[in-house]
Amino acid sequence: MVGHLSSSKFFGKTVIISWSHQTLPLLAVALGAPAESVPSKWGKRFDVTWVVSVNRSHIGGVVSAQTGILRQLPQLLLYGDEKSVIKLKRGCTNAALEKMRSNFEIDEEVEDEE
Length: 114
Known about the structure:
This protein is α+β, with helices and mostly antiparallel strands. Helix content is 18%, strand content 22%. The protein has one domain (2-103). The protein has helices spanning 2-5, 24-30, 94-103; strands at 48-59, 62-74.
């Protein structure tokens, strides 16, 4: 999916993804968010939206670099939703990301529906 989203078809576009919370850090990092900015644990918090803004550098029409920024936005949709974001005790470590990868298979194949 990340490879598909990296195609020029999505440059400058907003894409909304609903994803399994167990592998959300993997997706955020794969999209370009720095691992140290991605919470590795969040307890019972399911009231925060993660926004990954991707910046791409182009040289001769080819993507030469991709970086991202992770922002957290409180949803405030339901009674009991918190106004704060998930506190970052420490970001995802490589070991934590590898453990997520080994626990969950992520299907990278996405069919183009044009």
